[in-house]
């Protein structure tokens, strides 16, 4: 099966003699999970960042990953994106993945539409999908614009369109709104929610923002000392999450786990 081959090819460096454990299907493995990571260990020299880290994600589940600066959040996201070698443990991810980083990473010498289709086979169908993705992020009129003419929020919307057009089963978001001003960030939260509801990929959102995590995710994780120290479901109904008493209770729990004391 093509997907199994692709998954094995991408993840071979992770397997270290455990290749028999790789087993993926179109919507996940036989266990119905979209992501399985077990006993992941990643070190940079002597510095062990992830140590016996395990996580399972259901298809279409939205998980937010919090942790102190340097705790290893981006490192784990890069493991799921198969961007780094030298990782020990077992990881299974879907073949169709897309990543959005804090910076939009657009190629300045390519127009917006070309940035969205980058790396995809050319042709009318791809272009149509890209135009549709740009429409979904509210940038229909910018297909022929140059990246340097976009605001930070617009550029990040192009990055989201570039991810969407790949129809990912797993969307990896590494602090995608971290560089945006507060108002743009609020708009982007709404946009991400809409896109998520329409496409339903599994999402791993790495963020520093506790409110953002509670607002968007089905489950919030805290990473500390190389593994998950807290995993809490967000059982607060949309769309009035922020006003719910459960919101502030969960916020306090997470801040406490992160060792943060708020100003009175
Ligand atoms: N390529 C690398 N070489 C050496 N050390 C690295 C490398 N990448 C990350 N690290 C180290 O691994 C640790 C975890 O980094 P990572 O970027 O995953 O943390 P993070 O939780 O995402 O941090 P932040 O919230 O500040 O972005 C840090 O101590 C970092 O210095």
From TrEMBL:
<dbReference type="GO" id="GO:0005524">
    <property type="term" value="F:ATP binding"/>
</dbReference>
<dbReference type="InterPro" id="IPR050166">
    <property type="entry name" value="ABC_transporter_ATP-bind"/>
</dbReference>
<dbReference type="GO" id="GO:0016887">
    <property type="term" value="F:ATP hydrolysis activity"/>
</dbReference>
<dbReference type="InterPro" id="IPR003593">
    <property type="entry name" value="AAA+_ATPase"/>
</dbReference>
<keyword id="KW-0472">Membrane</keyword>
<feature type="domain" description="ABC transporter">
    <location>
        <begin position="35"/>
        <end position="250"/>
    </location>
</feature>
<protein>
    <submittedName>
        <fullName>ABC transporter ATP-binding protein</fullName>
    </submittedName>
</protein>
<comment type="similarity">
    <text>Belongs to the ABC transporter superfamily.</text>
</comment>
<keyword id="KW-0547">Nucleotide-binding</keyword>
<dbReference type="Pfam" id="PF00005">
    <property type="entry name" value="ABC_tran"/>
</dbReference>
<keyword id="KW-0067">ATP-binding</keyword>
<dbReference type="InterPro" id="IPR027417">
    <property type="entry name" value="P-loop_NTPase"/>
</dbReference>
<keyword id="KW-0813">Transport</keyword>
<dbReference type="InterPro" id="IPR017871">
    <property type="entry name" value="ABC_transporter-like_CS"/>
</dbReference>
<keyword id="KW-1278">Translocase</keyword>
<keyword id="KW-1003">Cell membrane</keyword>
<dbReference type="InterPro" id="IPR003439">
    <property type="entry name" value="ABC_transporter-like_ATP-bd"/>
</dbReference>
